[in-house]
Design a protein that fits this description.
By secondary structure, this protein is an alpha/beta fold. The chain folds into 8 domains: 188 residues, 3-Layer(aba) Sandwich (Rossmann fold); 69 residues; 214 residues, no CATH class; 169 residues, no CATH class; 131 residues, no CATH class; 109 residues, no CATH class; 117 residues, no CATH class; 59 residues, no CATH class. It is 60% helix and 7% strand. It is built from 59 helices and 20 strands. Helix 22 crosses helix 23 and helix 22 packs across helix 24. The N and C termini lie far apart (82 Å).
């Protein structure tokens, strides 16, 4: 090896660790002292102190987030050490980092250690996403804190219950329960389980508890038990507890996690001396989609957010730590020589970054032979595209165990004088990131396609250019790069990347442009490569089209997964189609297919978590007993959905421009995401509704569960295969079918009624004796379960499905109508048949109903009328008319809902024009109509309000006739600020306000959600107030412009001077006033936004009037400042008349004004020239003088000298 190789002068510390976790901390007890106490860490400690200093009940939690590799784990474990280690160790840490740490950090740590004596517990990973997992995890952590304090805590009933139950179980039964309900725990024995309980292993204990609950051996732990236990714990625990819970992302993203329970636990902890810090690698806002907006907002009210993101200056300090010179003095001399070559580029980078970045020349100098631009890009790319410090240290320090890293390879293979240029970063990042980032993947493919024809320097320039192009396309990320010159690919930026080296950048670029490997924009100078030149608009449109929830998740993945698992076809009921689809289901227009006797019907119910319960109530009532309804708790991660859509979009674009082979890479990536989504489902839960029971099981267990239901439900059917279920004893066979039927009916029949049926049955070898009695029994059960016990309605088609499910099938065409009619007349005594509009006696319409149902119309239902329902319908009809007294309750409410929407005013408006019981009735009735009008809701209304409703129905009717809806609505909006004066000022009426609110709230929210309507009315009032303020300040009255942002644009167009020009020549107070106008023009939303803007206008009203009063003065000041010219009043008026400036940018305005000034100067020169000619020659033009003296023009010009 050459003695000039870098490796002889510089080595890399072997003990450097790129990933810090609890095991590394345990094996390296001094490593925590290497953690740099940066600004965000100091803020974390400060927030912990602030919250512990608050009174109980006012404390929250801390949410620490940072991308992978930003040192979250390192930071919280360092905090744990600072609060637990000996004082000498802590002082050593502060002395080491005295230069970096904020001065108050020592005081915060001292307060927590010495005054509060905080006990710290660290947990990782997140708890199981179940109630038991969370509660057992919390209790286990709190008990560990008590152990550290030497305190005996009261027993927790959850641990005790699990221990007692398994202690009484037999080994075989216990293993069977674990294997079936908790296979993830493996072959766990009772002794091992008891040992895990003894050491309070929360993950294992939670798994055992869930298995015991599923097996109905023990109840699940509840939050009430935890709330009862916590005060007892607080009584004996004298010290505060700081619970640091790392890797909490998985819990919050898991669809099975009970976020409401977690929120309740955090609220409970705040009442005691327990402070929770959770760590995630995602920003809190990214969890809003998974949780739902309301749940997310409530959870965020409990937490303060702290971000871990290192500044580049601090990253450079960290990058120096692994450097271990063989001889420090010699290495300093080597770096001095390298600095002579790169000093200029280092100074350029530091100057570009500015003082706010805190990047110093010395920091970049210490990193040589890393080229300064390489160091800058490595720090940035590691944070934005990969795992921050992990990726960075892996680049610098990876050794022989996984192969030498790029930097160590450079040190071993290069001599003094060479530099690690940015092309090394392309090699390092492209292979890894091409799996996740399309631009990296395309750039790598383009490089491999062209590298055969390139030399070493040309390859290096191409790689660096591709790297900068990728950064340029990541506009949201590249803005954080301190040096602007490195944010895009230009000749200047590439020359900067190779400054101090022997690479001739311009020559290489000319060659690459000539071979069309790279392209250069002739105007902007921007460098690109052909594969990256894809229309952003085209890509966005296609990505939006493909990012269709229904296409990818609902109709594709979940249905494919369930159909693959189950033996039956799957009917999908989708929440997004609920408005029309579920209504058609309820009306019987659209029906699931008819089931054969040996089939199980499966309905896959797809809805967001917050809507599942309501949707399930609506849709499950339609399906019969033989259907099983599945409600998956799995939803595709939004990021995964976005990645899939983007991969598919790129595949479509690339296929069109470069063929199928080029698109195959993107297709494979999309399929990989899809496969990963399918694999996630086995571990998710699904709620199964069947036989009036609801249970929650793993998706992976659905198949076995339904198979057991199948065997149980159809074990008596002789048509089933014997491998599924043995023939039951209820089937007895006979050779006399006709006699069997006559004996079963047991009454006289019309002559010949059974002959067609007997002919069909005679073709069979035998007939089960009890089939008719069995059918009667099943029909009676259906009626009793659905009508008598629940008070609901039973579709007649479901009764006939029982008939069709008999082994020989009964249909009108085979002569069985008589049998069916006879049975149903017998069974339906005391019930009604309803077609949705009327209640009718079965004797009157049974034949018609059966014919309709057999032909597929399916509108008839069996119902039970009661005195309460009759009184309810009568009261409805008294109050509203509409013939509601002869309609079933649900139909009557549906008709009333339609009437309310036709009135275009909400029903709850009546309560503002009424008082007492009538007002309460109108409010309750509005809420009833707004819901799904289920039997349970109707019965609740009758229990609470029926007697009052019956007595005040007449008063409600009188108020409606007296225009009470509009009167009440007028009163309602007046409370929101829309008083009569406001309505008159803006030429509004209650009806027009209602129209406006209905458009804002898209109908249903306006009619049935009073709070939403109240919020929208307040927002409208504040918007009108803001418009009034704008009119007052500007002196412009234009009621046709109804949006504040458009009114500001209208003001500017009238003043003929752009808003930025006012700001350009304004003083500090004027700028503050103009900023309010700018904010309004850019758009404000919500009542609070309008109110805030109006208050700002009123506080700066005089200033704004002065500014807007004389736009010519503003224009004159701008021209004087920009062009050093003063214009007269006439010139200014001429400029404003002839040049449109109101909607221009600064550059456009400068160009327009310059052209006008040039034209004005030319006019002046022409006038002076004409005046001179007139004085000297007596004419205004030379042509006139020549014509006057009768001279040829050529003679005059030839006799003139050069001076002439």
């Amino acid at each position: 090896m050459s003695s000039r190789r870098y490796w002889n002068y510089l080595r890399i510390k072997e003990e450097t660790v790129s990933v810090f976790n609890e095991n590394v901390d345990r094996n390296n007890p001094e490593m925590w002292k290497n953690f740099v106490p940066h600004e965000q860490f100091c803020r974390l400690v400060e927030e912990v102190r602030k919250n512990l200093a608050k009174e109980k009940g006012h404390r929250g939690g801390l949410w620490l987030w940072g991308a992978y590799g930003t040192g979250k784990t390192y930071g919280v474990l360092t905090l744990k050490h600072l609060l637990e280690e000996e004082q000498e160790e802590v002082e050593e840490y502060f002395e080491k980092w005295e230069r970096v740490a904020r001065s108050e950090l020592r005081g915060h740590i001292g307060y927590l250690r010495n005054q509060r004596k905080v006990r710290v517990v660290y947990r990782s990973p997140a708890p199981r996403a179940t109630e038991g997992g969370l509660l057992f995890g919390m209790v286990s952590a709190l008990k560990e804190a008590a152990d550290k304090a030497g305190v005996e805590t009261p027993p927790y009933s959850g641990f005790e219950t699990v221990r007692d139950v398994i202690a009484d179980m037999k080994e075989e039964r216990f293993r069977e329960v674990i294997k079936r309900y908790a296979p993830g725990l493996g072959a766990l024995s009772i002794d091992e389980a008891l040992e895990r309980i003894k050491v309070r292993d929360a993950q294992v204990v939670a798994g055992i508890a869930e298995a015991l609950e599923s097996a109905r051996r023990a109840p699940a732990p509840t939050v009430e038990e935890f709330k009862d236990w916590l005060p007892k714990y607080a009584e004996v625990m004298p010290y505060p507890v700081l619970l640091l819970w790392d890797e909490f992302t998985d819990f919050l993203l898991n669809p099975s996690a009970n976020i409401a329970l977690f929120q309740e636990v955090v609220q409970t902890l705040s009442q005691f001396n327990v402070f929770l810090v959770i760590c995630t690698h995602r920003h809190p806002e990214t969890f809003e989609h998974a949780m739902g907006a309301d749940t997310f907002k409530k959870l965020m009210d409990r937490f303060e957010v702290v971000t871990f993101r290192l500044k580049h200056s601090l990253v450079f300090d960290l990058m120096c730590q692994p450097f271990a010179p063989v001889d420090r003095k010699v290495w300093d001399e080597v770096q001095n020589d390298l600095y002579e070559k790169t000093g200029e580029v280092i100074n350029t980078l530091v100057s570009e970054a500015g003082p706010e970045s805190q990047i110093s020349v010395q920091a970049l100098r210490r990193l040589l032979p890393l080229h300064p631009t390489t160091a800058m890009l490595l720090a940035h790319l590691s944070q934005e595209f990969s795992s921050a410090q992990r990726t960075l240290f892996s680049f610098l320090t990876r050794t022989q165990e996984k192969g030498d890293g790029p930097f160590i390879q450079f040190l071993k293979n290069n001599e003094i004088g060479a530099f690690v240029t940015p092309d090394a970063l392309f090699d390092y990042f492209a292979e890894e990131m091409s799996e996740h980032e399309e631009m990296f993947r395309d750039a790598l493919g383009w490089f491999k396609q062209n590298e055969k024809n390139l030399e070493g320097a040309e390859k290096a320039v191409l790689k660096t250019a591709l790297l900068l192009i990728i950064l340029q396309h990541k506009s949201g990320i590249v803005q954080d790069l301190p040096v602007k010159k490195l944010r895009a690919a230009f000749r200047e930026s590439l020359e900067l990347c190779f400054a101090g080296t022997d690479v001739r950048v311009n020559a290489c670029l000319d060659y690459l442009f000539g071979k069309q490997v790279l392209t250069e924009d002739p105007v902007s100078g921007n460098i690109n490569f052909p594969w990256a030149e894809v229309s952003d608009k085209q890509l966005k449109e296609l990505e939006k089209e493909l990012k269709d929830w229904e296409k990818f998740m609902d109709k594709d993945l979940l249905q494919e997964y369930v159909e693959r698992k189950l033996p039956s076809d799957v009917y999908v009921a989708h929440f997004r189609c609920e408005a029309c689809h579920s209504k058609r289901l309820m009306q019987g227009v659209f029906k699931p297919r008819h089931l054969m006797p040996w089939e199980i019907g499966v309905c896959l119910c797809l809805a967001p978590r917050r809507e599942q319960e309501n949707f399930l109530k609506k849709i499950s009532s339609y399906f019969g007993e033989r259907w099983v309804v599945l409600v998956p708790e799995w939803h595709l991660d939004e990021k995964m959905l976005g990645d899939w859509a983007r991969a598919k979009a790129w595949a479509e674009i690339v296929r069109g421009s470069r063929g199928s082979d080029a698109a195959e890479v993107h297709e494979k990536n999309a399929e990989k995401i899809r496969t990963a989504a399918l694999s996630q489902m086995d571990g998710a839960y699904v709620t199964v509704v069947m036989e009036d029971k609801t249970q929650r099981v793993l998706m992976a267990d659905i198949e076995q569960l339904l198979f057991e239901v199948f065997r149980k439900r159809y074990r008596h059917n002789p048509q089933l295969d014997t491998s599924i279920g043995a023939k039951s004893g209820i089937w007895k066979f006979t050779s006399g079918p006709a006699a069997t039927i006559e004996a079963a009916l047991g009454k006289k029949r019309p002559k010949g009624a059974l002959k067609p049926l007997i002919r069909v049955i005679d073709k069979a070898d035998s007939l089960p004796v009890g089939w008719l009695r069995e059918m009667e029994r099943q029909l009676a059960e259906q009626i009793e379960q659905r009508v008598k016990k629940t008070g609901g309605e039973l579709p007649l088609s479901e009764l006939l499905a029982v008939v069709r499910g008999c082994p020989f099938g009964l249909y009108p065409c085979d002569g069985s109508a008589y049998i069916i009619t006879t049975l149903l007349k017998k069974l339906l005594k005391g019930y009604f048949l309803t077609d949705g509009d009327r209640y009718l006696e079965p004797e009157m319409v049974l034949k018609e109903a059966l014919l309709d149902t057999f032909s597929g119309k399916g509108r008839w239902r069996v119902a039970q009328d009661t005195p309460l329902y009759r009184e309810f319908r009568k009261a409805l009809n008294t109050a509203f008319g509409l013939g509601l007294d002869v309609m079933p309750p649900r139909k009557a409410l549906e008709r009333l809902r339609i009437w309310v929407t036709q009135q275009e005013l909400p029903l709850w408006s009546l309560k503002y024009s009424l008082s007492g019981e009538p007002a309460e009735i109108c409010d309750a009735l509005s809420r009833l109509i707004a819901g799904d009008r289920s039997q349970e809701q109707i019965d609740h209304f009758l229990d609470e309000h029926l007697s009052s409703f019956a007595s005040c129905a007449g008063e409600i009717a009188d108020k409606i006739k007296a225009n009470g809806l509009e009167e009440g609505f007028r009163e309602f909006i007046s409370h929101s600020g829309l008083t009569d004066d406001v309505l008159v000022r803006w030429k509004l009426t209650p009806r027009s306000v209602a129209d406006d609110l209905r458009r804002r709230l898209e109908g249903d929210l306006f009619f049935w959600n009073e709070n939403s309507a109240k919020h929208a009315a307040r927002e409208l009032a504040q918007k009108l107030h803001l418009l009034a303020s704008l009119q007052s300040i500007s002196g412009i009255k234009c009621d046709e412009v109804t949006e504040p942002e458009n009114f500001v644009r209208h003001i500017i167009s009238k003043r003929r001077v752009p808003l930025w020009m006012f700001e350009d020549v304004a003083d500090a107070r004027q700028k503050e006033a103009i900023a309010i106008l700018r904010r309004i023009r850019d758009g404000v939303e919500g009542a609070q936004g309008y109110r805030s803007a109006a208050e700002g206008l009123e506080s700066h009203a005089q200033t704004l009037r002065e500014i807007l009063k004389n736009p010519k003065r503003t224009l004159a000041a701008f021209i004087k400042k920009t062009f050093r010219e003063e214009l007269s009043e006439t010139d200014l008026e001429d400029l404003m008349d002839n040049v449109s400036l109101a909607e221009t940018t600064r550059d456009e305005a400068v160009e327009h004004i310059r052209k006008w000034l040039d034209a004005r100067e030319i006019v002046k020169m022409r006038r002076r020239w004409q005046q001179t000619l007139k004085e000297v020659l007596g004419t205004e033009t030379i042509r006139d003088w020549l014509r006057k003296n009768e001279l040829p023009s050529w003679l005059v010009y030839e006799s003139m000298s050069a001076n002439h």
